[in-house]
Amino acid sequence: MLALYLASWLVAGYRVLASALRGIARGKVFDENFLMSIATVGAFLIGQWSEGAAVMLFYNLGEMIQESAVNKSRRSITDLMDVRPSSALLADGREVHPAEVALGDAIRVVPGAKVPLDGVVESGFSSVDASRLTGESVPRDVGPGSEVLAGFVNGGGELVVRVGARFQDTAAARMLSLVEGAQARKARAERLITSFSRVYTPIVTVGAVLLALIPPLVLRAAFEPWVSRALVFLVISCPCAFVISVPLGFFGGIGGAARLGVLVKGADFLDALAKTRAVVFDKTGTLTRGALSVSRLEPAPGVRERDLLDLAAAAESRSTHPAAAAIRAHAAASSPAADAIEYRERAGFGTIARVGGHILVAGSRRHLEAEGVSGLPPPFAGSGTCVEIARDGEYAGRVVLADEPKADAARAVAELKDLGVSRVAMLSGDSRLAARSVADAVGIDEAHAEILPHEKVERF
Questions:
Q1: Nearest-5° angle of CA 204, CA 2, CA 44?
Q2: pLDDT at 422 over 80
Q3: In Å, how far are 146, 270, 327, 413, 422 from 418, measured between CA atoms?
Q4: DSSP readout, 245-282?
């Protein structure tokens, strides 16, 4: 039986024992690992085999749960840490690390690639996905003179970008610096444990030694019972519940929040929740679903909504643009879209397709104007993004797309207010109209738009 308890003690506590030995070798003797080691050794010496093995087993189990919670929290920021690309393509065709690119150099960004450095588009037209950096769900159309940031994903056309910031100074680098710095933040209770162990462990150790020596030396009593009592004192003084419970509580909270899609900047922010009177939300993916969907159809006079949707789906049948995918998905709910016989796409503008004997044009207003479409209405001034549609040179209507609020977003905001949160605000990298539309839908009065990630921290 002793062999089984000893084996379980070694298997469960080898890390603690190794840490205690390393601490002794470095001159840092009195810590929780040292106390755990001598306490469990003492339990074995006085015959309390099960106690010694159980203390080490439960401590190690707590450490494993804590490590699991920390790993889950770290995985929740993996996507953020993968924002910056590892290479940049110079205008002369050479591929180098972004850190080797100098200010003012020209780089090429091919379709589907990430923009490696902040800069200004010098030539080319395309749409870029900025959601991973700004949270903006609607792709941006960019052309000469447009600013692009490291981490944007190029959609349709090749771009030539004049670099305006070094690798370490990009908006993505500043964002990652914030995320990495957050992982080192500890709550006040965690800092208290460190200070506590530095004082508590020496006191308990010295107390146990005195308990083992003074009565036999002063009272001339037998050593054996007092040594046994000193070891019992060490076992019952072992602070495993305190040492485990506080960090585990914080890491468990961070891990649980991560599983629900909430990234907590550090343990001290969990501590602050008890006194929270203001809550600030990001928009895309938090209050909204994070994907475009058709919100409404605005057909021209004499055109039915169903016909407009079919025309849009047919015109966008071969496009890889997120707006095109949303239109096709919406149209497929009732009937499959006809495939284009002839198809041409202008990156950053739109498409031209020949379907069923008709010439269909879909895309931006600028695209329809360039194709000589007649009957165009006033420019779209609402929130979200729109795809204008024409058939045989005549305007047929527009499809309006938006990132819709989550079904439970309004209820969550209302419950926060019921809990006593007096200020609920929303931050977004999206346009003011789109941000205001979502804020109104979920019951938020204070909305701030067109903000980059590092600016969000500065704002509040």
A1: 10
A2: yes
A3: 44, 20, 38, 9, 9
A4: HHHHHHHHHHHHHHHTT---S-HHHHHHGGG--EEEEE
φ, ψ (nearest 5 deg) of residue 41: -60, -40
Tokens of 288: 């909204």
User: Over the stretch 50-82, which tens digit does the pLDDT of each residue have?
Assistant: 777 777 777 777 667 666 665 665 565 555 555
Candidate list 105, 268, 271, 282, residue with the active-site label = 282
Q: Give the pLDDT of residue 107.
A: 92
Cα atoms in the Cβ-side hemisphere of radius 13 Å centred on 234: 31
Let me know: does 161 contact 103? Beta carbons within 8 Å.
no
CA dihedral (331, 337, 342, 347) in degrees, to 10, reads 20
| 22 closest CA partner among 456, 14, 362 | 14
Separation CA 456–CA 433 (nearest Å): 18
**Residue 280: exposure state from Cβ atoms within 10 A (0-12, 13-18, ≥19):** middle
The yes-or-no answer on residue 31 being catalytic is no
pTM for this one?
0.46
State how far the alpha carbon of 329 is from the alpha carbons of 291, 323, 333, 398, in Å.
Answer: 12, 10, 7, 16
Distance (Å, whole) CA 45 – CA 439 = 66
Report yes or no: 121 and 157 within 8 Å, Cβ to Cβ.
Answer: no
